[in-house]
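Data availability (excerpt). The following record was deposited with the supplementary files.
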Amino acid sequence: MAFGLQREELQHWKAAVEDGEIAFLTHFWYDPRFPDVKTVTKVGCSNLSKLEAWGRRYGLKKEWIDHHNGYPHFDLMGTKQSEILKSENKMDQLEKLIKKGRNH
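Predicted structure:
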C-alpha cells in the first residue's frame, strides 16, 4: 500500500516511464511481507531493454521487473534503495520522505 504520494508526482512518473525514460518515484509503503520496510522507490521505464541494462549496473535481475498496470519497474527497498539513490543523485526523494515522516 502506497501513501505520502501526490497525484502530480505519480502522473509525472507515469509520463516519464511511458516516454522511455528511467524514472524514479519514492514513497511511503507498507507490505506485511516486509514489516521493517517503510519506503520503496519504483524505477521504471517502458523500454524494457533499457530498464534491464540499467538494472544490471546495480546487480538487479530482469526477472525482478514488476509489470504492474503496464508500468514496468524495479522496486528498491532497504540498503539497495539508498545505495542506488545515492549513486543516481536522487537521495533527495528519500530525504524528503524522512523529513515528512518526522513532522507527522
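Summary of structural features: Residues 2-102 form one domain.
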